[in-house]
Design brief:
The chain is of the alpha/beta class and about 400 residues long. It contains 11 helices and 17 strands. The strands form 5 sheets. A 7-stranded mixed beta sheet has the order 3-2-1-6-7-14-15, sandwiched between helices. A 4-stranded parallel beta sheet has the order 9-10-8-13. α1 runs parallel beside α10, α6 crosses α7 and α8 crosses α9.
Length: about 400
């Protein structure tokens, strides 16, 4: 892509530490080569709800430069804000009042779902954007693939604390989440020991158990993952034995939000978001109740979810975020689009954008999890990548 580019950048879905490092690094690298960068606020909503009067609504479009991004990498969250907007699956009731009703009708299918993809394409063109840099998890990336297939040049960057995006071994936010979880669990050991309790820690992971598994790896805790339904009575016996063997008389178990015991079903609760996801009922509280009922030992549940999103990124996430941003700029400078930055086989790389409906990565139970002992596997790691999961151990191959 010769000459100066006009780059649009957005963050979608849940926030994680490291997003601001990507934004700043793209801005610094882009402006160094003469490109312009425009921040699209509130994720895809910034391209579905954007209005020109005659200039683009400043609530959704902001020009980014070295001055207004200079310090944003020192904090967590996303300076551009975010949303869970899915342009392909909108409700008419969620659209701004100024939308032309006739146009809305044109874009509405038989089920009443409004597909605003044409509006997004028009706004990208009207903004004069040459390329997009999109940062998000499965949902943000799936619509990125839709736009790429429609001919929009873009490069995507994966982020999610679940670390389950197809085609990459690492997503921004994962290391900080594990670091935060380790700190929180180790702090709570004192009160668990004081009261001689079983501590049940609920962590993110609706469908993938990477967050629970790696938290257990660094805290020497038992863990429960969605990929391996378990025997609740056996777990109760193991955890009770842990407590009995502990001089401080407590035990710890980490459960992913989607992990459930054999024969049980955890209900989804609340309204579905724009991508069809609902929250799981709080398995931590239910599990604590069941463990107490089976062992007679007081058990307490603690939430380790939104705390893990908060605050600045740890050193690894800051490094990966900065590197992903610069790989994205390398690709754009070389004229390569329609790709996602990635780590593959322990090395920085880029790969195809996940297609809509592509299942996320899952823990390779045989390779990474000891089902009998409810623990990560610590043995047999010689030759594994530094982060212990490679293309042959829990990462679906792509190109």
């Amino acid at each position: 892509m010769a000459g100066a580019r006009r780059i649009g950048i957005l963050t979608g879905g849940g926030d994680v530490p490291g997003l601001n490092s990507v934004i700043k690094s793209v801005v610094y690298r882009a402006t160094a080569v003469g490109d312009e960068v425009f921040g699209i606020r509130r994720g895809w909503e910034g391209l579905t709800h954007l209005r020109f009067d005659p200039l683009p609504d400043p609530n959704y479009i902001v020009r980014l430069d070295r001055s207004n991004t200079r310090t944003i990498d020192r904090t967590g969250g996303t300076w551009l804000h975010t949303s869970r907007t899915n342009p392909k699956k909108m409700k008419a009731s969620s659209l701004p009042a100024w939308f032309d009703p006739a146009r809305v009708t044109e874009m509405t299918d038989a089920d009443g779902v409004v597909d605003l993809t044409p509006v997004v394409l028009e706004n990208v063109e009207r903004l004069g954007l040459d390329v997009l840099v999109t940062i998000g998890g499965d949902d943000t990336l799936s619509f990125s693939r839709v736009l790429s297939d429609e001919g929009v040049p873009l490069v995507a960057i994966p982020k999610t604390m679940d670390n389950d995006v197809f085609g990459t071994e690492y997503c921004i936010g994962f290391s900080t989440a594990i670091t935060r979880a380790k700190e929180l669990i180790n702090r709570q050991r004192t009160t668990l020991g004081s009261h001689e309790r079983i501590g049940v820690f609920r962590i993110f992971g609706r469908d993938a158990g990477f967050s629970a598994l790696y938290t257990a790896y660094v805290t020497s805790a038992r863990c429960l993952i969605p990929e391996a339904p378990y025997d609740l009575d056996r777990l109760a016996a193991v955890v009770a034995a842990d407590r009995a063997a502990n001089p401080s008389r407590y035990a710890v178990v980490v459960t992913a939000e989607g992990a459930i015991w054999e024969g049980a079903r955890m209900q989804d609760v609340g309204d579905a978001d724009a991508f069809g996801h609902r929250h799981k009922a709080n398995v931590g509280e239910v599990l604590a109740y069941e463990l107490k009922a089976r062992t007679g030992i007081e058990s307490v549940a603690s939430e380790l979810t939104y705390d893990l999103r908060s605050g600045e990124p740890d050193a690894l996430d800051a490094m990966v975020a900065t590197t992903y941003a610069n790989i994205a700029m390398d690709l754009l400078i070389d004229g390569v689009t329609g790709r996602m930055t990635a780590i593959r086989d322990g090395k920085y790389a880029h790969t195809e954008l996940p297609k809509p409906g592509t299942p996320g990565r899952r823990v390779d139970v045989a390779d990474m999890y000891n089902v009998e002992r409810f623990r990560p596997r610590y043995e047999g790691k010689l030759g594994d990548p530094m982060l212990l999961v490679g293309l042959g151990g829990g990462v679906a191959a792509g190109v």
